[in-house]
Design a protein that fits this description.
heterodimer, A: elongated, B: 185 residues, mainly alpha, globular
């Protein structure tokens, strides 16, 4: 046996001294996580049906210009969001092969997809807010405009929501960028 | 319609076509047979016990999702370790814990009297794990699998690289580990 083989044998013995038991609740944690993921899939569909269906029902019930315009705008936003999300998630579902390189490739794609999604999310939020603002300002008479701007919904979603959303996006983007850099470094090491 | 970051999840969690009881029994049997080894592998990719448990959960999740698609193309051990390794790698990326590859390239030195004889086996084992964690991931992975008792062929199947490449990486990993252990002694 060479020195290298002896080393490996010695390390192997020491390695097996370690008993690293899996947490006893691992199975239940996995099942709980599966349920959470399924719920995570249901939420965007529920939001689409709730918002889109709600405004559509309103437009059908009272087919005036205001209701129809609002329903159309809501469905345009929903359509843009779904289309972008579907296009963005292409190639990120499962690895193309059962190799580390393929898995890493998918992880990198997911990371890049998340970054693109975050950027798109900011633009969509701003566009929706602008639309709502314009809707309230031009849809009401001048005496009620100031009132509309300080309404609870506007304060929460606009004046407080936008800075909070931007702060979260910046924080999460930075985190994802660092993760992407680490994954790219791993990919570089794998190729070498 | 499945969308966004949840899309890949949807593709993986569809177990409706497989009898759930059979799947659960198989999942439990795999965890039972490989739990301790997976724990050791997870420890090599993480820096704390809670982090290790998170990774183990992630690995178990990966197993649960991939099991319906496993058709015995490779041995069960290869299948399990491949998932563990891939999840470990992604975990290291998420933790931004990637050691540059040239940081631990040590030249082997002449063997010195072993300083480890004074330490208990548990302490030596802990020291070994800490040293392994300082290796670049691509060396860490190949070494951890070799320490688990996998041969070149199995390691090459787990990692998706050639057996020659396994040999090269293992040699470098060994050299790096020896250097780290000497530095720390």
């Amino acid at each position: 046996m060479t020195h290298a083989d002896l080393d490996l044998e010695r390390w192997r013995e020491l390695w097996h001294v370690r008993q690293e038991p899996a947490p006893s609740d691992l199975r239940s944690r996995v099942l709980a996580e599966t349920r959470r993921m399924k719920l995570f899939l249901v939420v965007p569909v529920a939001v689409t049906i709730g918002f889109g269906g709600g405004y559509l029902a309103r437009a059908v019930a009272s087919p005036d210009v205001e209701s129809i315009t609002l329903a159309a705008a809501v469905w345009v936003f929903i359509g843009v969001a779904w289309t972008t999300a579907i296009l963005n998630s292409r190639g990120t579902w499962v690895p193309l092969a059962d190799t580390t390189a393929a898995y890493l490739d998918v992880s990198i794609r997911r990371c890049r997809g998340t970054l693109r999604g975050l950027e798109f999310g900011v633009w969509l939020y701003v566009a929706e807010l602008t639309f709502c603002l314009a809707w309230r300002l031009f849809g009401t008479d001048s005496s009620q405009r100031l009132e509309a701007l300080v309404s609870p919904a506007f304060v929460v979603l606009g004046w407080l929501g936008l800075p909070a959303f931007l702060a979260f996006t910046i924080w999460y983007s930075r985190r994802k960028r660092r993760e992407l850099a680490a994954l790219l470094e791993l990919q570089r090491q794998l190729i070498e | 319609v499945r969308v966004g970051s949840a899309g890949h999840v949807a593709a993986e969690i569809d177990v409706s076509g497989v009898a759930r009881d059979t799947l659960e029994a198989r999942f439990n049997s795999i965890l039972g047979a490989n739990g301790v080894a997976l724990g050791r592998l997870a420890a090599a990719y993480t820096r704390s016990a809670s982090d290790r448990d998170d990774l183990l959960q992630d690995i178990a999740m990966g197993l649960w999702q991939a099991l319906p698609r496993f058709r015995g193309e490779c041995s069960e051990r290869t299948f399990v370790f491949r998932i563990a390794h891939n999840r470990g790698l992604a975990h290291a990326g998420r933790q931004r814990w990637v050691v540059p590859i040239d940081q631990t390239e040590h030249e082997p030195q002449d063997p010195l009297p072993d300083p480890e004889v004074e330490l208990s086996r548990e302490e030596q084992s802990e020291r070994l794990l800490r040293a392994i964690r300082r290796l670049p991931v691509i060396h860490r992975e190949v070494l951890a699998l070799a320490l688990e008792g996998l041969g070149y062929r199995e390691i090459s199947q787990v990692l998706g690289i050639s057996e020659t490449n396994v040999g090269v990486r293992l040699n470098r990993a060994r050299r790096g580990l020896r250097g780290i252990l000497k530095d720390r002694s």
